[in-house]
Amino acid sequence: MITPDQINEYKQKGFVVLHDILTSVEIARMEADLESFLSRQSDGKERHEYLEIERDPGGQETGTFRRINHPHRILETVAEFSRSQKLIDIMTPILGPNVRLHNSKINLKLPSGAPVEWHQDWAFYPHTNDDFLTVGVLLDDASDFNGGMLCIPGSHRGAVYDHRNSITGNFCHAIESPESKLNLANAEGLFARKGSLTLHHVRTLHGSGPNHSNSARRLLLIGYAAADAWPLLGVSRYDEFERAMVSGKSTVFPRMEALPLTVPFPISRFGDQIFESQRELQKSHFVSA
After folding, report:
1. Residue-wise pLDDT tens digits, 57-67
2. With CB atoms counted within 10 Å of each terminal CB, which end of the chain scores lower, N or C?
3. How do residues 160-178 score in pLDDT, each as one tens digit?
4. Which backbone phi and psi does 131 adopt, to 5 degrees?
């Protein structure tokens, strides 16, 4: 499912695109599951706690759905795929045989959907080692025009940047003035057809622009870590932590590596979710839709 050349590309660049991995049947089932969930939310009578709504610059909700957090807990097809042998066969050559599911979300990015500013996931959840990657499942074709993901090759081997507002000191899930710190001219788009997968390392610098198209650009993201990578911010529910194993065996002996890191504090005045927290930025890098 993943070739030695693709593994090498991932290790060298910090990301790779695997084209046309999901079958049309798998995509259709996942889309139907997603649309069924969203249709139940559209009447506004009982909004699910995992559903996020776009906000305007003043902080008022626009009514546009932007993200579903933890879809592996509420969508059957995502739960199945997150533990599928197909996905395990892709991850284990990179992470090793013992793998734990860490998180999931679906960024809906409907027309005029907001950008995701430049950041490193490692700043959000540092672990004892960085054998940690995120799988992206393209539920729509991704391009630069509709806000497909951009990554900076080799950045997973470099610095870990400050993700705080330089004036307030609050964590804002993004790098201020990235154009003055990063060589953004080297950024590559993880653009592909729907049904393709992307993999990016937890320290890879990435972001995405707004959706300028008239169609959604839906992206399912599922994070996985080697079982011996333990969260430095702690484990609140050990039973849930253990149930998150998707391959191999767990361990209570974390592997420690000397790595640059930061922690996501102080929490932004807008909260600890990335879209809200990024409102703390003094200036967006991306041009609005």
Report:
1. 777 888 889 99
2. N
3. 999 999 999 999 999 999 9
4. -80, 80
**206-208 and 149-151 beta bridge pairing:** antiparallel
Give the CA count within 13 Å in the CB-facing half-sphere of 29.
Answer: 12
211/128 Cα distance (integer angstroms) = 36
Cβ count near 130 (within 10 Å):
21
Dmax (CA) of the chain: 50
Domain ranges (residues) in the chain: 4-40+56-176+196-280
CA distance 140 to 138: 5
Tens-place pLDDT, residues 23-50: 999 999 999 999 999 998 887 666 789 9
Among 168, 167, 171, residue whose Cα is nearest residue 267: 171
Task: Return the closest-CA partner of residue 38 out of 108, 103, 104.
Answer: 108
What is the three-state SS of the chain?
A: CCCHHHHHHHHHHCEEEECCCCCHHHHHHHHHHHHHHHHHHCCCCCCCCCEEEEECCCCCEEEEEEEEECHHHHCHHHHHHHCCHHHHHHHHHHHCCCEEEEEEEEECCCCCCCCEEEECHHHCCCECCCCEEEEEEECCCECCCCCCEEECCCHHHCCCCCCECCCCCCECCCCCCHHHCCCHHHCEECCECCCCEEEEECCCCEEECCCCCCCCCCEEEEEEEECCCCECCCCCCHHHHHHCEEECCCCCCCCCCCCCCCCCCCCECCECCHHHHHHHCCCCCCCCC
| pLDDT > 90 in the chain, percent | 89
Residue at token pair 């900076």: 152
